[in-house]
Specification:
Elements (H helix, E strand, L loop, with lengths): L5 H9 L22 H11 L4 E2 L7 E2 L2 E3 L5 E9 L7 E10 L2 E4 L2 E5 L3 E8 L7 E4 L5 H4 L11 E7 L5 E7 L5 H6 L4 E6 L1 H10 L7 E9 L13 H6 L5 E4 L2 E2 L1 E6 L2 E8 L6 E7 L2 E2 L2 E6 L2 E9 L2 E3 L4 E7 L9 E5 L21 H5 L14 E9 L27 E7 L5 E3 L11 E4 L3 E8 L6 E5 L4 E7 L21 E2 L1 E4 L4 E7 L8 E7 L2 H5 L3 E7 L1
Parallel strand pairs: 1-16, 2-6, 3-7, 4-8, 7-12, 13-17, 16-25, 26-29, 28-36
Antiparallel strand pairs: 4-5, 5-6, 8-10, 9-11, 11-12, 13-14, 14-15, 17-23, 18-19, 18-22, 18-24, 20-21, 20-23, 24-25, 26-27, 29-34, 30-33, 30-35, 31-32, 31-34, 35-36
Main location: periplasm
Pfam families: Cu-oxidase_2, Cu-oxidase_3
Subunit structure: Monomer.
Length: 546
């Protein structure tokens, strides 16, 4: 770790306290836990050199906003865009033409109850398929990789959007090609709106792309010509691919202008493997902000925090009141230092941390390859005077989300580990597309206990077809426990979740309701959303019997 040793880091994290303003609430501290004021100022100094305007959703082009009712035909294509200033980068993209406009990776807007009717046409030389991450759809429309679209072929999707308001996303899921295709650009956002969402936007006067800002966090590698580099060795495939160059909405070193008002940030970790420990910094201190929602929508009430972890596949909905910030000075969105816990594996490949990527990249390797867990500035936010009087207040209620129900009895165990041969496992097995090791009944309510081996790595586990609620965390590492409240729960655990980070040695209890409106048997997968881990075996099929 660049700022101080791992021993010093763990000691400082262990000394942290979770100051709760009331049960289930997390209060902000003046300086981020485990860092000095000088270290925070160094992070802010990184952001002073940021100068690229953040890419925002527009009316067309890259990330152009498109209602799902106009999303009729999408082509998977090879294209080029300017990612780095002055250079054209070849990418994979979802291309759409609608209303005389062209879109790449459109940000889709849906109302609860909208009908999705879209034809996917594969125009690249690899099989692919779209997975609608977080949406509760039948397995035929889930895009879970059990059926893919061959080059030159097409597939029709048809389903009703029935989920709670949230920011979901869509990305490829053809086994054997998932990490490479996602890394090269195949991913975008899908916003679902319901009455709670409409009420919040009206109450806070929010507008997408202005005071409501989606932020897709990714890390990339480029060669001298600006081409994306993805060539993992066996060790990197086992550990997960981590790039050294930070991107927000495919913008390196981005700057955003924001008014001194409540601004909403919709965050997605779209990285293959990198996790982030996020905080908003100004003048050597952390700005408190409010967690408003998680993967599957709004919390019952906002929770005030000063930092949060975000792992691959996860989304967070946060509200920042920039009236609390000092006027005239920028705010930095940063990833604070943390222990990525990549050296717990006990296997030769697991012992290789991400700082060794350069060995495989050879001459193309950057001079200073960053390790996951290093402190990094991600974005600078320049505060501007609000044109009109803004007198909105943070809401005390966001939704009618009920508390989760815990069932009596012994939970179903899901044990995460590896076989010592380069494969990640679930219950000792590696992914076999022909095997269905788990069957549940439609309408069943189950409790699962997801147990990560101590000699392991963190695993963000994603369940297809259903969301779930987190009941308890046990055995959390030192850097996690101080951020937790009752029953070891992190703030984002209070919401509806479809992707869950499970740290080495940790056991997490979740509640799943397998009720659904679809006819017939359904077939889904459960896997790690560190994409290289899924390809290295940490995925299993499960069936829901009618």
């Amino acid at each position: 770790m660049s700022m101080f040793s791992r021993r010093q880091f763990l000691g400082s994290m262990g000394a942290m306290g979770a100051a709760a303003a009331y049960p289930g609430a997390w209060a902000a501290s003046a300086t981020p836990s485990g860092l000095s004021t000088d270290e925070v100022l160094r992070l802010e100094a990184q952001a002073t050199g940021f100068f690229n305007p953040l890419r925002l959703p527009g009316t067309s082009g890259l990330f152009g906003v498109l209602p799902v009712t106009d999303f009729k035909e999408v082509h998977v294509v090879r294209s080029e865009i300017e990612v780095l200033p002055g250079q054209r980068t070849p990418v994979l993209a979802y291309a759409v033409e609608s209303g005389g406009k062209k879109f790449l990776n459109p940000a889709l807007l849906a109302r609860q109850g909208d009908q999705m009717r879209v034809k996917l046409i594969n125009r690249i030389d690899q099989p692919t398929v779209i997975h609608w991450h977080g949406l509760s759809v039948d397995s035929r429309n889930d895009g879970n990789g059990l059926h893919v679209v061959a080059p030159g072929q097409q597939m029709d999707y048809a389903f009703t959007v029935q989920d709670r308001s949230s920011m979901y996303w869509y990305h490829p899921h053809a086994h054997g090609f998932i990490p490479r295709q996602a890394y090269h650009g195949l991913a975008s956002l899908l916003f679902v709106e319901d009455e709670d969402e409409a009420t919040l936007r009206k109450e806070l006067a929010l507008a997408l792309g202005e005071s409501e800002i989606p932020l897709v966090l990714q890390d990339k590698e480029f060669d001298a010509q600006g081409r994306l580099q993805y060539a993992p060795s066996a060790a990197q495939s086992f550990g997960g691919w981590v790039g050294s160059r930070m991107m927000v909405n495919l913008t390196e070193r981005p700057v955003l202008k924001a008014g001194r008002r409540i601004v909403r940030f919709r965050l997605l970790n779209g990285s293959n493997a990198r996790s982030y420990r996020l905080a908003f910094l100004q003048q050597g201190r952390a700005l408190g902000f409010y967690l408003a929602g998680s993967d599957g929508g709004l919390l019952a009430q906002p929770v005030r925090i000063d930092q949060t972890f975000l792992s691959p596949g996860q989304r967070l909905d946060v509200l920042v009141d920039f009236r609390e910030a000092e006027g005239g000075r920028p705010v930095t969105l940063a990833s604070l230092p943390f222990d990525p816990m990549h050296q717990e594996g006990g296997h030769d490949m697991a012992a290789m941390d991400h700082s060794q990527h350069g060995a495989a990249l050879g001459a193309a390797a950057p001079a200073a390859m960053a390790m996951e867990g290093d402190a990094r500035a991600l974005m600078r936010i320049d505060l501007t005077a609000t044109e009109a009087l803004y007198d909105r207040r943070m809401p005390t209620r966001l939704s009618s989300l009920a508390a989760p129900v815990e069932l009596a009895g012994t939970p179903r165990r899901m044990q995460l580990g590896h076989d010592g041969k380069g494969h990640w496992t679930i219950n000792g097995g590696v992914f076999d597309h022909a095997a269905v090791p788990l069957t549940v009944q439609r309408g069943a309510r189950e409790t699962w206990l997801i147990e990560n081996a101590e000699r392991s790595m963190p695993h963000p586990m994603h369940l297809h077809g259903f969301s779930f609620r987190v009941l308890e965390r046990l055995g959390s590492p030192d850097q996690i426990r101080p951020l937790a409240g009752a029953r070891g729960l992190l703030p984002q655990d209070l919401g509806v979740v479809d992707t869950l980070q499970v740290w080495p040695g940790e056991s997490v209890k979740i509640a799943i309701d397998f009720s659904h409106p679809h006819t017939g048997d359904q077939d889904y997968v459960f896997h790690c959303h560190t994409l290289e881990h899924a390809e290295a075996g940490m995925m299993m099929r499960y069936a829901v019997k009618a």
